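Running this now, will post back.
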Amino acid sequence: MENLEYRLNDSFDGYPALFQYKNLDTAELACRMSCEYYIKAGQVYRVVSSAVEPYENCILYVEKEGSNIPFPDERMYKGITLEIREFISRDSSPLIEVLEFKYHAQALKYLQSDFIYTKDCGKQDTFHELELMYTEIDEDRGNYVFYGKRTGLKIHK
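Update: finished.
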């Protein structure tokens, strides 16, 4: 089991710990460390660096980006879920698909991918390619999010 701390990237204040997670399984730790953004208590944090300290304590150093402004289609989740959103702008990223997983290891492959493929609405055997813009973990809603831009490539089964 692994420990993880989110620390504010503030050398003048001694990198204060913001949030701590104890006894995470390795796959959940890897999912969290794959995300560039972290949302907690309405605040958006951007991960700027990471470290593994002695005794396997993992650290994510973050900077405050501002308050989280939810999208109208956001909802709460239970379990391990990944929203796939089409990134148009910070203000507009429509939901394309929600994937549910039994294990964090299943979500990890999406969070670490540069390209993923989503089903074309109404066309069972057609998929659109999305290129990764960034990923986040939204603690407030209990899910991961993959933001991607459509590349224009379609794959037909």
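DSSP finds two helices and ten strands in the chain. More later if anyone needs it.
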